[in-house]
Amino acid sequence: MKVLATLFCALFMTACQSADPLSAKNDPKSESWELAFTEPYYMKVWVEDSAVEDINGKLFKRTGSGTAAGGEPEDSKESARGWHAVGGAAKAVIGADLPKRIYVRWQSIVEPQTYQVWVDVPEEARNLMVQSVNQRCPEAPEQQASYSASIYLGLAPRGVVQVFVRDSCHRPVKVARAQAAIDPLGPSQGKNQGRYAYPISEKSKRYIEKYGIPYGSW
Question: What is the rounded CA–CA span in Å between residue 159 and residue 94?
Answer without folding.
Answer: 27
